[in-house]
UniProtKB/TrEMBL annotation:
Keywords, in A-Z order: Isomerase
Protein name: Sugar phosphate isomerase/epimerase
Domain Xylose isomerase-like TIM barrel positions: 27-276
Domain of life: Bacteria
Length: 279
């Protein structure tokens, strides 16, 4: 396996990116010993690449990017707006000299039509993805698409949903981005989706059933890491767990219970947990 270990900026700060908060997240991630930080791009795309690149260099830290579609860029309803916005996110990732953009790129988080995904909606999404994939290819970026649970979207809830839509596009630079929190709700187990994806799996959000310390919830980690070994996983494992010790975090990620671990403890314990499982 060829694996890099990362923390999301959400390990340290809320998603509202600004230069000062970003610098803090980069410094904390580097000090905690991660290989890279996942930078969740803001929907405003107000993000100074030059400044962030310098902060990453100063801290000898790599980065990957992610982007979650906002409601007003729900692909099935607003394909043009979505296409423009995802292309901008690809450009930011490329300007930052990273080769990966992951995230919820199938629909706006929290948008529902009231019905299951239709064939027509699936066609619209595949068309937009195909155009984005072509653009991303010219910028040297691979795209990872993250299925999320039914309470956040009706578009892609499972690995198979994403893989089927990718197949529809016929594009090679679209990949699966899994998240163990969502898998715990939507998949039969933690093994089959990884095997189904094989080399199409590029990026994983490592997070417990309650988004706290891995190993303290109900995710079947043995099953999950066994599957990663079987596919000889090459990609990134990035923490996406949250602590109530981060100011403002409880409100933005529905973390209503007080966390037993503060942000530093959670990051250090989770990094050790990942290392123990891949070695
Ligand atoms: C994003 O990575 C994610 O997992 C979603 O639950 C965010 O709403
Ligand atoms: Mn996630």
């Amino acid at each position: 396996m060829n694996i890099k270990l990362g923390a999301s900026l959400l390990s340290w700060i809320t998603p509202a990116w600004n230069a000062e908060a970003g610098k803090y997240a980069i410094e904390k991630t580097a000090k905690a010993g991660f290989d890279l930080i996942e930078i969740l791009l803001p929907a405003s795309m107000d993000f100074n690449v030059k400044e962030v690149k310098k902060q990453l260099q100063d801290n000898r830290l790599d980065a990957v990017c992610s982007f979650n579609l906002p409601k007003e860029a729900h692909i099935a309803f607003y394909p043009e707006a979505a296409e423009q916005l995802i292309k901008k996110a690809v450009d930011k990732a490329s300007d930052l000299e990273t080769d990966f953009l992951g995230g919820v790129l199938h629909g706006g988080i929290g948008v529902f039509s009231g019905n299951p995904l239709t064939e027509n909606e699936a066609d619209i999404i595949a068309e937009v993805w195909a155009k984005i994939a072509d653009h991303a290819k010219t910028r040297g970026v691979n795209i990872g698409i993250e299925p999320i649970n039914r309470y956040e979207t009706y578009v892609c809830n499972t690995a198979k949903n994403v893989l089927d839509l990718i197949e529809k596009t016929g594009k090679q630079n679209l990949f699966l981005h899994l998240d163990t929190f969502h898998m715990n709700i939507e998949e039969n187990n933690f093994y089959d989706p990884v095997i189904l994806a094989g080399k199409k799996l590029k990026h994983v959000h490592i997070t417990e059933s309650h988004r706290g310390m891995p190993g303290e919830g109900t995710v079947n980690w043995d099953e999950f890491f066994r599957a990663l070994k079987e596919i000889d996983f090459e990609g990134t494992l990035v923490l996406e767990n949250f602590s109530s010790s981060v100011p403002g975090m409880q409100q933005v990620v529905s973390l209503w219970q007080k966390s037993p671990h503060d942000a530093e403890e959670l990051a250090a314990g989770s990094l050790q947990f990942m290392k123990n499982h891949i070695n």
